[in-house]
Amino acid sequence: MTSRKKETALEDRGADGARLFSPSAARNRDPIRDVFLKYLPKTGAALEIGSGTGEHAVHIAAAAPRLRWFASDPDGAARASIAAHMAASGLENIDGPHAVDVCEKDWDALLAGPFDAVVSINMIHIAPFAAAEGLFAGAARLLRRGGRLLLYGPFAQGGVHSAPSNEAFDASLKSRDPRWGVRDLEHDIAPLAQEHAFRREAVVEMPANNFTVVFAKQ
Ligand SMILES: C[S@@+](CC[C@H](N)C(=O)[O-])C[C@H]1O[C@@H](n2cnc3c(N)ncnc32)[C@H](O)[C@@H]1O
């Protein structure tokens, strides 16, 4: 396995052929899967935005065999990695990878909804805020009523970071790209939820000062 660095990955990833391996995915995939499974339906269709290496896609899809998992990423190397992980997994309930960029207008028109869930792990803080806006707008159009939008990552709450390490992370993100940054659940995300008729259902504390945030489409 060789090591390669990608700007948006923010960490050294391993590689085996096209398959990329993210150290943070290896650390966090079990708790993410376990919490997501509580909020995902057992059957139906879930769309993942920004699947990255594809490790979370195969890990969750393996544990939810009756759920159809649609993996996506705008990055070609990420899609090659997702495809290679899908092939290695032998799973038949993963679709894609789809080339979805939530900053593009009407990105949801690429996909045939409705979906029962839309999920995005570690994406909206490593992208311009337009990605969060596009994610909520497209998810609102794609989700059936009562469908859920699940977000995972670091979040501030009420203007306060959850840990000094997240404040430092926020500064480091902004130094790489001033449009990036840890989002605030009240100041940044709540207005999007309100605009697109999502009700916040749960904020689940995760290891390493991260959160899973669950919204339901009304
Ligand atoms: C830090 S990686 C996280 C990957 C994976 N979800 C994980 O947690 O291991 C962020 C991913 O979001 C994708 N991304 C960035 N901007 C995006 C956008 N506008 N629409 C969809 N995905 C985007 C990147 O290509 C990248 O694969």
Features:
Rossmann fold, disordered N terminus, binds S-adenosylmethionine, alpha/beta, single chain
Please provide a written account of the structure.
The structure is a single chain. The chain starts with a strand and ends with a strand. The protein has a single domain (23-217), classed as Vaccinia Virus protein VP39 (Rossmann fold, 3-Layer(aba) Sandwich), CATH 3.40.50.150. It has helices at residues 23-39, 55-63, 76-89, 129-142, 164-176, 185-195; strands spanning 2-5, 12-16, 19-21, 44-49, 67-72, 94-98, 115-121, 143-153, 155-156, 183-184, 198-206, 210-217. It contains 6 helices and 12 strands. The chain is globular. It has a 7-stranded mixed β-sheet, sandwiched between helices. It has a 3-stranded antiparallel β-sheet with strand order 1-2-3. Strand 2 and strand 3 form a beta hairpin. The model is unreliable at 1-7 (pLDDT under 50). The chain has 218 residues and is of the alpha/beta class. Helix 1 runs parallel beside helix 2 (55-63) and helix 2 packs parallel to helix 3. Helix content is 36%, strand content 31%. Bound molecules: S-adenosylmethionine. The site of S-adenosylmethionine (SAM) has 24 residues, from loops.
The CATH superfamily appears as: Vaccinia Virus protein VP39
Reading side by side through the largest sheet, how are the strands ordered? 6-5-4-7-8-12-11
* Averaged pLDDT: 95
How many domains would you count in the coordinates? 1
